[in-house]
Structures are given as C-alpha cells and as structure tokens.
Amino acid sequence: MLLGACAHALGETWVVTDRAHPITDSNGVRVIFLDEQERLEEQLTQQLPSNLSQAPETIQSYLSSSAGINFQHDLTQAQQGTTDAWSLGIEKIPAVIVDRRFVVYGEADVKAAVEKIERFRNAQP
User: With 72 labelled, which of 46, 48, 63, 92 sits at a CA distance of 20 to 30 A?
Assistant: First the structure.
C-alpha cells in the first residue's frame, strides 16, 4: 500500500524530526523539522549587510519583498510546527504520529512506522 493511501486511511499523519535525523517515505504527510526556525533565522542573518548600521533598512526592504514575505510565511509555519510538536509531548525524534494519538519513535522510514500503527490499530478489539 502506498504511504499516502495508508496514511489517509489511518487519518492525519505527522512526522517530527530535524535535519540531523533524516526520514524516508514521507510523501503525503506533514513533516515538522524542529530546527527549521533556526535554519530560517540563519538565512535571514545572511541578508544582513557588513555595515550593521544599515541592517534595519536592509531587513525592512527584504521583509517587504516577495522573498521576504515567503520567508515570514515559512517562519510562521516553522514556529507552528514546533508548537504542535510540543503540544503533543513528543519525547524523541524522529516521531511518526497518526491522528495526534498514536506515535512511533525512532523509525526513520515513515511508511514502516505508519504500518506499525496500522497493525496495532487493527489488533485492537
């Protein structure tokens, strides 16, 4: 069964990880990178001029550009992802979560983790 179909049959599927813990077979699921905000902030820092007195004007100009608007959207999404992961009480990564209720920790293959959850759910009376 394809992951997207399997994940859809089970319900909403999220993966919580970071860049140091790559995952596979994540098509069709929400992936939350806990280090995404840091990556984006580093990207913003690269926009700063060497003369820091020009920084406020440079950043304002960048943030009002289409790239800056996309950056702000991405930053908001990263912050929301981190908040969502915290709200679920995620303890380790990678974590594959289905229906905000079932979790498999430490499995980098998302399809395999979803299949474990599916087997568990099917075994329940």
Answer: 92
Domain holding 29: CATH number? Answer: 3.40.30
Are 119 and 102 in contact by the 8 Å Cβ rule? The answer is: no
Q: Please give the structure tokens belonging to residue 15.
A: 């993966």
Structure tokens, 3: 């992951």
DSSP the chain: --HHHHHHHH--EEEEE-TTS--B--TTSEEEETTHHHHHHHHHHTTS-SSGGGHHHHHHHHHHSHHHHHHHHHHHHHHHHHHHHHHHT--SSSEEEETTTEEEES--BHHHHHHHHHHHHHH--
Give how far Cα 111 sits from Cα of 49, 92, 97, 117, Å: 44, 18, 12, 10
Q: What is the pLDDT of residues 11-53, one digit of tens each?
A: 799 999 999 999 998 889 999 999 999 999 999 998 888 898 9
Domain extent at residue 71: 3-123
Q: Model's pTM, two decimal places?
A: 0.82
